[in-house]
């Protein structure tokens, strides 16, 4: 079933094909977990959001085929499903504190610098501290600012794409980015 493209697989999922669902999931789960983690900054919350997204995919795959406003591809459609699950997760009331994920779960390639050279123990410690502080600063941003910042800087969407995705005007999106940058500059002034 690997010879089918994602859109064909999604159509099969809409018809109840469990193997097509498994193929799509195996192919994309790591990517969408990374996206959710960037939004939520918590491994547990990202896992919950992605699990909910896959359950929605199973339940709603048939709607994709019949949606006249559907995006051009499965990846665009499912990206929106994952982000909406992340937004739902962020809206749930909970005690916000600097959790172990933010403090300890740094990227797997943390032993290397941006130039892909091995870091000294001191350099590694400094990079880890910087990553921890950036993640903590992102966590305290208001939700819409964090999402706007993540869509533009981490996901590489244009302002127009991200504004459309969030359902806001281009001017409103620009304002979210400006406020997020200002807040991050204040919190991370000694790193800049």
How does this model look, in words?
- The protein has a domain at 1-94: Rna Polymerase Sigma Factor, Chain: A (Orthogonal Bundle).
- With 192 residues, the protein is mostly helical.
- It is built from nine helices and no strands.
- It has helices at residues 6-14, 18-40, 43-66, 74-91, 100-104, 121-140, 143-154, 159-166, 170-187.
- The radius of gyration is 18 Å and the shape is globular.
- The protein starts with 5 loop residues before the first helix and ends in a 5-residue tail after the last helix.
- The model is unreliable at 95-116 (pLDDT under 50).
- Helices cover 71% and strands 0% of the residues.
